[in-house]
Design brief:
Distance between the termini: 52 Å
Number of strands: 13
Strand order of the largest sheet: 3-2-1-4-5-6-7-8
Radius of gyration: 23 Å
CATH superfamily of the largest domain: NAD(P)-binding Rossmann-like Domain
Shape: globular
Structural class: alpha/beta
CATH topology of the largest domain: Rossmann fold
Number of domains: 2
Oligomer: single chain
CATH architecture of the largest domain: 3-Layer(aba) Sandwich
C-alpha cells in the first residue's frame, strides 16, 4: 500500500500516464514510469515532453528533485509499492473490445509482482475486466488478492488541454476487489488526489467511466442530429444552443461537430454494448448515438461538395485544406480524430488534401491511418492557404486567427462555428456551416 514514503509505478506514459506520474512526483512520492516505447522513457529522463500541453519544465523539475524517472525495464516493478496501469483499450474492426494491451501488460508485470503491492487498472473497459483479466491471472500466479496483494479499478478522468482541471483536482473514483483492496486504493489515490470517491466494487467503478462517456456520446449524437434538422429548416443550430444555454437548470450545452474523436467517446460506449449482449440486452440508444456520430464525416463531405459546386467546381481535382487535425482544441492528441476520415473520404473522391495544425506539425504513425504518416502541416500564411479551393475547419485552436483565415481563403466549410465572429456579409459570401 502506498504511503508518502512509498514508490509509485505508472505503466503506460501517454496522455493519461504521464500526467499521473507527474502528479505523484509533484505530490512528493518517488515515481517510476514504465513504457515499452524507449523513445518515451528516454525523453522523460532527458527532461523533454512529447505531449504539447505538458511543459518540459514540469518534467525537469521532478527529475531534478529525484522524484521522477522512466524505464523500459519491467523487472524494476518489484521496486514499487503500487502499480498503476494506463494502457490503451481500443476497438477492433468489428467494434468489439481489444484488450490485447491490457492482457499483454498484465502478463509482463506478473513475473515482477511481490507481496504487499497494490495494482490499479485505469484503462477504460467493460464491467468485469478487473476481475476477469487481472484478479484471475494474479491469483493463478500464487497470490491471494485482498490478503497479500491488492487490486483496484480507478477510471482515468483526464481532460487534456483543460486548464481548469489537473489530475489531482478531479475527484477520483475507486473500487476494490475486496474491502482491504478498497482501503489500499483509497490510500494510493488519497496521497495526491484532493477527493477520492470510493464505490462498492470494481464493476461499479468500471461502469461509472462508461456512463460518463456514454452520456457525452448520446448528447453529442442528439445535437448532431438536430444540426441536420436545423440545416434543412434554415436555422442556425449554434444560435439555438446558445439561447437554450441561458436556462439556468435542466440543460447542459453539447455542441455538434464533424464526428467524434479521442480515445474515449468514440470507443467506450461499445465496450458496454458488447458486454451487454452477454446478458441478453440490446443497447439500442447507445448504438443509435454511435451511428449518428459516425455518419457526421459523410455529412461534412457532402457539404464540401455543395460548397465547391457553388464555385462551379467538383471535388475531383480540387485542392482542399483541413484546419485542425487534433480531435479537440488546444491539444496535440489526434487519436480517432474525424479529420482523418474527412481526409480519406475527400481523397477517395479525387481531391488533393492537405492540413494545417500547429499542434500536429507532422503526422505520426497510427494504427488506423498509417498512410498519412509523415505528412506535414502547411504554413499559416496567405500564399499557401489562398491556393486552396476550399478550407474545412475541422478543429479550431485558440492560437489561430479566424480573420486571417477568412481573408486568405476562397471558401470555408465551418464544422465548429469558428466563424461566428466574422461579419455576416462575409460569412454569407465565403462560409458554409456543416
Amino acid at each position: 500500500m502506498a504511503t508518502k514514503s512509498g514508490i509509485i509505478g505508472v505503466v503506460g506514459l501517454g496522455y493519461v500516464g504521464l500526467p499521473l506520474a507527474l502528479a505523484y512526483a509533484n505530490g512528493g512520492l518517488k515515481t517510476l514510469g514504465f513504457d515499452i516505447d524507449e523513445a518515451k522513457s528516454d525523453a522523460i529522463n532527458a527532461g523533454e515532453s512529447y505531449i504539447k500541453h505538458i511543459p518540459a519544465s514540469s518534467i525537469t523539475e521532478q527529475l531534478e528533485s529525484g522524484k521522477l524517472a522512466a524505464t523500459t525495464d519491467f523487472a524494476r516493478l518489484s521496486e514499487v509499492d503500487a502499480i498503476i496501469l494506463c494502457v490503451p483499450t481500443p476497438l477492433d474492426e468489428h467494434f468489439e473490445p481489444d484488450l490485447s494491451y491490457v492482457v499483454s501488460t498484465i502478463e509482463a508485470i506478473l513475473p515482477n509482482l511481490r507481496a504487499g503491492q497494490t495494482i490499479s487498472l485505469e484503462s477504460t473497459t467493460y464491467p468485469g475486466t478487473t476481475e476477469e483479466e487481472l484478479v484471475t491471472r494474479i491469483e493463478a500466479a500464487g497470490f491471494e488478492v485482498g490478503k497479500n496483494i491488492f487490486v483496484v479499478y480507478s477510471p482515468e478522468r483526464e481532460d487534456p488541454g483543460n486548464p481548469e482541471f489537473a489530475a489531482t483536482n478531479i475527484p477520483k473514483v475507486v473500487g476494490g476487489h475486496t474491502e482491504a483492496c478498497l482501503e489500499c486504493g483509497k490510500a494510493l489515490y488519497g496521497s495526491v488526489f484532493e477527493q477520492v470517491v470510493p464505490v462498492s466494487s470494481t464493476q461499479v467503478a468500471e461502469l461509472t467511466k462508461l456512463l460518463e462517456n456514454i452520456y457525452r456520446s448520446v448528447n453529442i449524437g442528439l445535437v448532431n442530429e438536430l444540426k441536420l434538422v436545423a440545416d434543412r429548416m434554415g436555422i442556425d443550430i449554434w444560435e439555438v444552443i446558445q439561447a437554450a444555454s441561458t436556462k439556468p437548470f435542466g440543460f447542459k450545452a453539447f455542441y455538434p461537430g464533424p464526428g467524434l474523436g479521442g480515445h474515449c467517446i468514440p470507443i467506450d460506449p461499445f465496450y458496454l454494448t458488447w458486454k451487454a449482449r452477454e446478458f441478453g440486452v440490446h443497447t439500442r440508444f447507445i448504438e443509435l448515438a454511435g451511428e449518428i456520430n459516425r455518419a457526421m464525416p459523410a455529412h461534412v463531405v457532402r457539404r464540401c461538395a455543395d460548397a465547391l459546386n457553388q464555385q462551379k467546381k467538383s471535388v475531383n481535382g480540387s485542392k482542399v485544406l483541413l484546419v485542425g487535425l487534433a480531435y479537440k482544441p488546444n491539444v496535440d492528441d489526434d487519436r480517432e480524430s474525424p479529420s482523418y476520415e474527412l481526409m480519406d473520404r475527400l481523397t477517395e473522391m479525387g481531391a488533393e488534401v492537405s492540413y494545417h495544425d500547429p499542434y500536429v506539425p507532422v503526422i505520426r504513425p497510427t494504427r488506423e491511418h498509417s498512410h498519412w504518416a509523415g505528412a506535414r502541416s502547411i504554413p499559416w500564411d496567405q500564399a499557401p492557404i489562398s491556393r486552396f479551393d476550399l478550407v474545412v475547419i475541422s478543429t479550431w485552436h485558440d492560437c489561430l486567427n479566424i480573420s486571417e483565415l477568412v481573408n486568405w481563403s476562397n471558401f470555408i466549410v465551418d464544422t465548429r462555428n469558428a466563424t461566428a465572429t466574422v461579419p455576416a456579409t462575409t460569412r454569407q459570401a465565403k462560409v458554409m456551416k456543416a
